[in-house]
Structure formats: C-alpha cells, structure tokens
UniProtKB/TrEMBL annotation:
The keyword Isomerase does not apply. Gene3D superfamilies: DD-peptidase/beta-lactamase superfamily. PANTHER family: PEPTIDOGLYCAN D,D-TRANSPEPTIDASE, PEPTIDOGLYCAN D,D-TRANSPEPTIDASE FTSI. This is Penicillin binding protein transpeptidase domain-containing protein. GO terms for cellular component: plasma membrane. It comes from Desulfurella multipotens. Residues 9-106 form the Penicillin-binding protein transpeptidase domain. The keyword Membrane applies. It is found in: Membrane.
C-alpha cells in the first residue's frame, strides 16, 4: 500500500527535497516560476561593483520543457553566481525584500609600532 506523506514548503526548502521541488515547479505555471526566478535576480547581473560579473544561465522560457522546469526547481538545470545565490537567501531571510548588492572595502590599519616581540 502506498503511503501519502504531506510536506510543508518550509520543510521542502529546509531538507532540500529535489522530488518535492520538482513537483511544485511542475504543478505551477511556468510563467509564475519564471517570474520568481527574475524577482530573485537569477539570469541577470546584480549590478554589484565588481569587474567580471556574469548573469548566470537560465534556460529560454519559450523552449522550456517540463524536464527543464523540474531540474531548474532543485538547482541542476540553472546556473547562478555566488552573489545571486547570496542575494536570494538574503531576500528570503528579509521576508521577501531584496536590497541592492554592493561591496564594502575593508581597510586594515597597520600598527604604528612594527617591532615584533618574542613572547616565548
């Protein structure tokens, strides 16, 4: 006998369930799925002030097949940059609000006394 298990979305996310992620994506309209990809910033540059930023790879909406949609749902049919992923996690942690991504420069002040003391 087949046992049906109900899983909440937060559990799917927390346990990184590929099967449940794929089922959710296939159940939703691909237009909605793509709307969220774009709102999270996947497939486009973040505008961070670093040279060489890439946009990642998101498959073309028009030619998307159900298999592509399913694999994109759990991260194997899509390519994102580290900054895009960090920005998406921050948006989730901030209740859905995404902030402009920037880099901060860190300056470390050298000690004025350059003498090295032997502590042994």
């Amino acid at each position: 006998m087949l046992k049906i298990i109900s899983t909440r979305f937060d559990q799917v996310f927390a346990y990184s369930s590929n099967v449940c992620s794929a089922k959710i994506a296939l159940k939703e309209n691909k237009k909605i799925f793509y709307k969220y990809l774009w709102r999270f910033g996947f497939g486009k540059k973040t505008g961070i002030d670093l040279p060489g930023e890439e946009s990642g790879i998101v498959k073309d909406y028009v030619n998307l097949r159900p298999f592509d949609l399913a694999t994109m749902a759990f991260g194997q049919g899509i390519s994102v940059t580290q900054i895009q992923l960090a920005r998406a996690y921050c948006a989730i942690a901030n209740g859905g609000i995404s902030y402009y991504t920037t880099c901060a420069k860190l300056y470390i002040k050298k000690p004025q006394n350059n003498n090295i003391k032997n502590t042994s």
